[in-house]
Request: fold
Amino acid sequence: MGSLDEFSLPVRLFLRAYRWRRIDPVPWTPLAKPLAECRLALVSSAGLVVPGQAPFEDTIRGGDVSFRDIPADAEAGTLIDTHRSASYDHAGVRRDPNLAFPIARVRELVQRGRIGAVNHRHLSFMGSITAPGRLIRDTAPEAARRLVADEVDVALLVPV
Amino acid sequence: MCNQAVCLVAAELERQGIATVTVQLLRVVAERVGPPRALCVPFPHGYPLGAPDDPVRQHHVIEAALRLLEDGALVPPVLVDFREPMNG
Reply:
């Protein structure tokens, strides 16, 4: 299990005093059909971008709540780590972005028939959002609208 | 913070009709934030699916997450600890 002890003392003190945003009531969408018939999208907060996209910003107060579309056919090795946090080891993700953005793994799941299809795009955020008001109000609803328009059935979300 | 961010996005996806499962690296955060379906993994930050260049292990975590989507008996908020398969 990840632990708060992984972090530096100032980060630990911040996190201990932090007021986490409770999701209440908890929204719930049951699976409506077998996964083998479902279209899946990935959502990761590892701050990955494809070449040509703007990197995430670490100078925005409260965090960068923007997100990027990642084409589903992008090769994992082309994804660029622009997450600015010094609170975790970036070496694993830089070596194999599938570790936090399993773009090749989900294509394999389609080949195996485990899921029906991969959406034509996945979504990439950067964590380190200490003030998530704009995420809740603006960018998360916009992200959801895009995936609904794509007729996505299920999403796998991966932090870093 | 990464853990909370994906939980909050998951909640919005569920509100708009997309079923979600969220990997979580910190159980204490998952308990406090309460996403619809969370799979808590025993890995350090930076390694949410276990290890780089290890597709088999990454698939084990993804498969465990997908099973939460398929389990019709679960009641939200769902918080399940990932366990490595016994025979690889």
